[in-house]
Amino acid sequence: MSTFYDPRSGDKAMTVHPSFDLDSLTNCIILIDEHGVIDTINQAAEVLFETSAQRAIGMPFEQLAMVPGSEGIDWYETLMSVALGKLPTVNRDLRFRLRSGKEISVDVVITPLQYETDSRILLEMSPLDRVRAISETENLREAQKRLHNVVKGLAHEVKNPLGGIRGAAQLINKRFNDPKLDQYTDIIIAEVDRLQGLVDRMLGPRESLSMATHNIHEVTERVRQLLEAEAGDRLQVRRDYDPSLPEFDADRDQLTQAVLNIARNALEASPEQCRLTLKTRALRQFTLNGERHRLVCVIEVIDEGPGIPAELLSSVFLPMITSRSEGSGLGLSVSQMIVNRHGGVIQAESSTGHTCFTILLPMEPKDEN
Q: Pairing between strand 89-98 and 65-66?
């Protein structure tokens, strides 16, 4: 049993049972000693700082997360000030540079803790980048839901007259035995079929999910094989897989279609040679669509192409949105629908020479909505 004391009065504040699990918390928790050395780190912090507890414990905190530029704070000074003053400190929207070079934004609450025998400093961090991504994803989901309802109503209104036009063209074929008319009616029928197919694709896959236990690399390898057969020497695929990922329930064919749509977009957007990376990882204790998941599968599709125009990036998953004149703008919308039905989301970031689509899928069983 550990006992904490209020640093301002010395009164006993609370006791924490040793079985209390920091890994159950969504916030990132790091305990450091009076020298600024990491003593404890929970799973959320491991994910945020892209490290493991084994590597982080015993490391000076300033080596784990550096504050870039002159706008940053001196961590040693700040921590010592908290330790000596025994008063909590809050730092808002603080940017860290990780050892990998990636930068993240967090809110940090620094609290001195006085144990019975020694003291520690508690760092509690809320990743703002993740909060912003969740907000953007929720806004996108709401926009997609509203647009999908509009499309469903529009599809009903369009498909009925299309069926009548097709039927009328077939009747003309039967009634008038004229090769010249046949040529025109064949065009009408073909165009009606094309429009009906377009409407069906706008609605997305309507068949129920056929769930079975699969390894996600069955999906990524199938996508790789299909693309290499399609593109030949114009495509170079790099695989960066986590072989320890467990199997989980999914509709393999629909997930293959979702990943294939994203990868094919990258291929079509590349003017000449396409360099594509398929990457898989796992995230622990991760929140998706408002639900906390013990384990989440991450699939990244990364290309080195020209990138997505900034004005399109926020709406790239909406139907009919495309930067290519010959594109339908439906592939990414369908991919997002499929992933949503699995309880996951797709996120996108893009700049010239680097575009990354990240698919996040819960690895626990989920009932289809």
A: antiparallel
Q: What is the pTM of this model?
A: 0.60
Is the separation of the CB atoms in 336 and 317 below 8 Å?
yes
Candidates 278, 272, 221, 262; CA nearest to 346 is 262
Chain centroid to Cα 349, Å, comes to 10
Domain boundaries, the chain: 2-129, 133-203, 212-362
Domain 2-129 belongs in CATH node 3.30.450.20: yes
The reply to whether CATH 3.40.50.410 applies to domain 212-362 is no
User: How far apart are the C-alpha atoms of 362 and 328, rounded to whole Å?
Assistant: 29
**Residue 298 contacts residue 360 (beta carbons within 8 Å):** yes
Q: Report the alpha-carbon distance of residue 52 to residue 61 in Å, rounded.
A: 13
The rounded distance, in Å, linking the Cα atoms of 313 and 327 is 16
Q: Are 274 and 231 in contact (CB under 8 A)?
A: yes
User: Mean pLDDT score of the chain, rounded to an integer?
Assistant: 77
Per-residue pLDDT of 55-75, as tens digits, reads: 889 888 877 877 655 444 556
Query: In terms of pLDDT, which residue wins out, 282 or 324?
Result: 282
Question: Would you say 207 and 240 are in contact if contact means Cβ atoms under 8 Å apart?
Answer: no
What's the rounded Cα separation, in Å, for the pair 317 and 148? 12
- The answer to whether the beta carbons of residues 113 and 4 sit under 8 Å apart is yes
3-class DSSP state of 45? helix
